[in-house]
Amino acid sequence: MKIENINIPLMISGNLIENINLNDNYYRMRIEAPQIARKAKPGQFVMLSMWKNKDPFLKRPFSFYGIESDSGTFDILYKEIGKGTQIMAKSKVGDLVELIGPLGNGFMIPENTNNIAVVARGIGIATLMPLILESKKRGIAIYAFLSAQTGSLLLCSNEINSISEKVFYTTDDGSKGAKGIVTNFLENVLKEEVIDVVYVCGSKRLTKHIRNLQRKYNFLAFVSLEEHMACGIGACKGCVHKTKDGYKRVCKEGPVFPVEEVIFDD
Amino acid sequence: MTKEVSLEVDLGPLHLKNPVMPASGTFDIRCTLLNEKELNRLGAILPKSIAFQEREGNPGPRICETDCGLLNAVGVPSKGVEYFIKEELPLLKKANNIIIVSLMGNSIEDFCNLAGYLNNIEEISALEINLSCPNLNNGIPFGVNQDKLYELIFNIRKNTSKPIIAKLSPNVSDIKEMALTAKNAGAQIITVANTLMGMAIDVDKQVFRLGNTMGGLSGPAIRPIIVRMIWEIAQSVDIPIIGVGGVYCAENAIEMLLAGASAVQIGSANFFNPYVMLEVIEGIEKYLIKKKYNSIQDISGLVKN
Question: Which ranges of A56-156 would DSSP assign to H, the alpha helix?
């Protein structure tokens, strides 16, 4: 019983200490919530609300983009897109943030991992960022494969450039990096060397490519899935994704799944 | 010194220490933030509907938020009754002494088998019948057809000695008739009501926002409809009512009690605030003290024409 309790998420109020517009409608929010920041692991998420008037009705899930357990803060990266994120974008330093977390299962980094590849589409890089930093800390070489609609949406590229062995970019409009599918670059690397683990986030299409490459080159691969969530704690059964073992809750059994277990219909 | 108030309520044969419990499908004993002591403060505990056999539920997307509400087409996934008894019931038993089990089925036989199977399990206090389940024969929910509703409850009655709570469907033109039918068929308590059928379309992608096309609307958006239904039934049918639909705070729960409910369930508000049920219990108590009432009975159905 005691052991289970350790994993029970907390519902607490945090303090907004930074809310910065990065570009276009992308923002980074820093929240002070030591009880959550100290327990948070790469790949986990929080349910968040900064509204109380039933509209929006639900909290929103955000994965940890940065975790600073020493200062008791964490960051999220978000795109102003709907009612909830519009309120977030307008919020000010000092505002209260209602939180439930940390939630879900984070990324697993196997022992003796020498190198990893991270593959992200757009804001999917936010979820992978704590994993990248943790890997760097462990001396693991990082190959980054980043894809976006256009150059300005290749988020965090400076930071990733500075800590990765190699970084490959593709954009749909060719404004930065190459045009085309970023996983083609991954395949070029795989032809030359062994990659221990591949992590992907932000695109079902890229995840399917990873699955195909996995069949061919045989590596461990994990995907962080996104779904609409109502509760985030496993109670509502609303956020399921199809897997080889039936529907699984993204919030509870995920959000990180082995790529080979996930089934995409389309 | 304030006078002691009692939150205890009698719902026909069912005695509760207070009138607040989760709505089916919004609470899971295996992933709740409430500790054992907090769970024990609830009037009753009510896990998600169980089916006799394991069932997967609907394909995604299963939920979508709407204005002041939530559309869901989760489709009652269940690991089946045996799993429930072995894995869930022991946890529920530790949490609360009133366990209400919600039943789902797609035929009268399904429901009867399930009710019969659970009849000898002492820890189960009552059975709530989810009448929004579609009948396998024609896909029409039992709860929207008086004859089918009667036949279902009547047959379940023959298979159980436990109190039967009929969870009515609000997707009908006359909820009073359905309440009376449920009572005449042998239900001792009714839950009013369930989600309202709804639909949402993504105008950008031009697709339905739920995998199942249609779903059930819950949340504050539906509360006035439910309050009206509770009131209509309370005026015409003599049966204890559990109100459910959009309760978000104590004030909302009190509104249902004033309309004629004896207890309330809290559903999708649990998703926003897992502690909401405890807050509602406290809020009702404060209201009784402030307004100088002794008990829930004093305010239940207080507002009349």
Answer: 83-90, 124-137
**Min Cα–Cα distance to chain B from A197, Å:** 29
pLDDT digits (tens, 9 = 90+) for A150-176: 988 888 888 999 999 999 999 999 999
A14 sits in which H/E element: strand A10-23
CA angle, B302 as apex, B296 and B304 as ends, to 5°?
160
CA A175-A180-A186 angle, 5° bins: 115
Spell out the SS3 assignment of B238-266.
CCCEEEECCCCCHHHHHHHHHHCCCEEEE
Are the beta carbons of A57 and B220 separated by less than 8 Å? yes
Cα–Cα distance, B191 to B19 (Å, whole number): 13
Q: What are the start-end ranges of the E strands in A50-165? A: 60-63, 66-68, 73-79, 96-103, 115-121, 141-148
- The minimal CB distance from B63 to the residues A11, A56, A236 is found for A236
Q: How far is CA B215 from CA A143, B65, B73, B74, B129, in A?
A: 43, 11, 5, 8, 19
DSSP β-ladder status, A166-171 and A197-201: unpaired
Q: Which of A183, A142, B256, A6 is nearest to B267 (CA)?
A: B256
* CB contact at 8 A, A237 and A249: yes
How do residues A93-141 score in pLDDT, each as one tens digit?
A: 999 999 999 999 999 999 999 999 999 999 999 999 999 999 999 999 9
Say yes or no: A209 contacts chain B, CB-CB below 8 A: no
Contact A58 B65 (CB under 8 A): yes
CA distance A184 to A213: 9
Q: What is the ipTM of this complex?
A: 0.93
Number of cross-chain residue pairs from A and B with Cβ atoms under 8 Å apart: 97
Per-window interface: A 118-137 vs B, CB < 8 A: none
Burial classification of residue A55, based on how many CB atoms lie within 10 Å of its CB (0-12 exposed, 13-18 middle, 19 or more buried): middle
Q: Scanning every residue of chain A, which has its alpha carbon at the shortest distance from the alpha carbon of B57?
A: A247
Q: Omega of the bond prior to A56 within 30 degrees of 0, cis?
A: yes
pLDDT surpasses 70 at B30: yes
Residue A16, min C-alpha distance to chain B (Å): 19
| Best residue in A10, A229, A240 for a mutation probing chain B (most B CBs within 10 Å) | A240
pLDDT tens digit string along A38-96? Answer: 999 999 999 999 998 788 999 999 999 999 999 999 999 999 999 999 999 999 999 99
Give yes or no: B112 in active site: no
- CA-based nearest residue in chain B for residue A231: B271
CA atoms of B247 and B72, how far apart (whole Å): 17
Closest CA to A12 of B275, B49, B259, B136: B275
